[in-house]
Amino acid sequence: MEVHVGCAMWTHPAWPGRELPSRERLRSYASHCNAVEGNTTFYATPAASTVASWVEQTPPEFRFLLKLPKLVTHERRLADVAGPVRAFLDTIEPLGERVHALWVQLPASFGPTDLDVLAAFLRRLPRERRKAVEVRHPAFFEDERWSARLAEALDAVGAEQVLFDTTVLFGAPPTSAAEEEAWQKKPRLPRRSHALTTHPVVRYIGRDDDARTAEGWQHWLDTVVRWLREGRSPTIFVHTPDNAGALALARRFHEEVRARVPEVAPLPEPLPTDPLTLF
Fold it and tell me: At the top level of its lineage, which domain of life is listed (predicted)?
């Protein structure tokens, strides 16, 4: 049985390894968690040397959920994108199986009338790569007809829906500046917890209070345990508005899963971080 857990980034001022050179921080992170969201690829296709560094710093079992560039998903809205998609796929090829899935995050304006465009785009992606689609248009959450149509389109190509849960974040008024900012930026949508494939993906956003975040993930703890017993291999990304505690929280979530499903393999032991010295 396999569970991957991770965060929205691999470096943060509050995390171990922050004092390391930038090209070593992923190695430190990968000793704490076994997956990471590839949000940086949304802004541009990485350089080949950057991808080579990612390969060098991570073990083969580590997983990246790589977001397709915004040129593809937001600017061109999946139309006339063969060139940039091919460039992206060629660049990430050295990661091999470390690529958990190609993450197609769509803008909130991408709605039911665009489903045919999405379906055609997904059919053109390589069959050997998993696909994970994140939608934010309210109709896909509030209208069961469109929710079902989306599931049909994804299921036809073996794609998963990224389950983005902000219900705990919006469950009570913000109590910090980071929470106030998250309230302004994050989508407020109903929670969905259905899995379409054997590799479901969850992005869970809690609060800056670690205890409230852990209390709020009980639904996902139960769901992950059920998925495991169904033979699925889920990936869970833990966010908080300031993300200061996210690294430790991701490990804690994994530990709580293992307490209920001992067959799940443990996470690696974190690498020691040597203190800075004058000599």
Answer: Bacteria
Average pLDDT over residues 225-235: 98
Share of the chain above pLDDT 70, in %: 97
pTM for this model (two decimals): 0.95
Are 125 and 102 in contact by the 8 Å Cβ rule? The answer is yes
Boundaries of every domain in the chain: 4-260
Residue listed under structure tokens 């040597």 = 274
What is the distance in angstroms between the CA of the first residue and the CA of the last residue of the chain?
46
- Name residue, tokens 């509050």: 14
Q: Which fold has domain 4-260?
A: TIM Barrel (3.20.20)
Predicted confidence at residue 274, as pLDDT, reads 56
Distance CA 106, CA 72 (A): 10
Express each pLDDT in 55-73 by its tens digit: 999 999 999 999 999 999 9
